[in-house]
Design goal:
heterodimer, A: 119 residues, alpha+beta, Folate-binding fold, four-stranded antiparallel beta sheet, two-stranded antiparallel sheet, 3 helices, 6 strands, 26% strand, globular, B: 172 residues, Gyrase A, domain 2, Alpha-Beta Plaits, 2 domains, five-stranded antiparallel beta sheet, 4 helices, 10 strands, elongated, binds zinc ion
Chain lengths: 119, 172
């Protein structure tokens, strides 16, 4: 059974109170993008065995979308965070590294600092 | 013959007003208009007649007698003048049940994925009761459950079924 803590209301929600929303941090490809990029935005999804970032909605609760970091192999949950974060925040990265020392983020720090998370 | 776990009673005559607003900006005005303190996340405040529940970071639910509804709608509209906000009468969309008795917690615990012993008074828990959305909080003698009127028959039935005699949890 999967239990995720909603970062908006603090409720420890069990999986049946949540609605899954697939991969987190997708960036929309607009009219200027190539056909290949747009196709990838629509259809290409990461499918890692290990650390994964996902969207979840607290459907039977406050109704907000939030993001979760967890392991697809062990189902270990590293943490949840608000959907306003363009990238996983530092405490999530630290929580993952505490259990998966070899894991590397696949986004760049400059990006992460440039787009500081809003409330 | 064992006793039923709890009495399940449909409650009529309550009005519900949904308030959507930026609670940090409009909190003081809303507290004055409702006459109740603004509840913190997952909280519910009450003066015994009216209750104000926290539904989400930008949503409150005011529960009050039907007779006071029109006046409250007006006060809320006034309090939120100039705000990007919504005041909506949701009374007809909802059904209310009171589950009262010494084993009322067992009834809810069978239907909702919620740790009832950790549900403190003054907490409004939005969740589900079996297959339908519901929210509940503690009242003197038990719990009050609200759900959609469209699924009220189902909600009433599963609550009564869960209260059947001899079906208590953790008998030891
Ligand atoms: Zn929530």
């Amino acid at each position: 059974m999967l239990i995720l803590t909603c970062p908006y209301c603090g409720v420890q929600a069990e999986e049946t109170e949540l609605h899954p929303g697939g991969e987190a941090h997708l960036k929309r490809v607009g009219p200027d993008g190539s056909d290949e990029d747009f196709e990838a935005y629509l259809f290409a999804r990461k499918n890692p065995k290990g650390v994964h970032f996902e969207r979840w909605r607290h459907a039977y609760g406050c109704g907000k979308w939030f993001l979760a970091a967890r392991c697809t192999a062990s189902l270990q949950v590293f943490g949840t965070y608000k959907a306003q974060n363009p990238y996983p925040p530092a405490e999530i990265v630290d929580a993952i590294r505490a259990h998966r020392p070899d894991w590397q983020p696949d986004w760049t720090v400059q990006h992460a600092q440039a787009e500081s998370p809003a409330e | 013959m064992a006793e039923i776990l709890a009495q399940v009673a449909r409650i009529e005559g309550l009005a519900m007003i949904t308030i959507r607003a930026d609670l940090t900006r409009a909190g003081d005005a809303l507290a004055e208009a409702t006459g109740l303190p603004i509840p913190g996340p997952t909280g519910i405040t009450t003066d015994g007649v009216r209750s104000l529940g926290w539904m989400s970071p930008d949503e409150l639910l005011l529960i009050l007698p039907q007779a006071d509804k029109a006046q409250a709608m007006q006060s809320l509209d006034q309090a939120l003048t100039g705000e990007h906000a919504l005041v909506a009468d949701m009374s007809d969309a909802r059904a209310v049940f009171d589950v009262t008795g010494p084993r009322a917690d067992d009834v809810i615990a069978k239907l909702a994925p919620v740790d009832l012993p950790r549900l403190a008074p003054g907490t409004l828990r939005r969740s589900r009761a079996a297959q339908t959305a519901a929210a509940f909080w503690r009242i003197p003698g038990g719990l009050r459950v609200i759900g959609f009127r469209s699924t009220a028959d189902y909600l009433g039935l599963i609550l009564s079924e869960a209260a059947r005699p001899g079906t208590g949890l953790a008998p030891r």
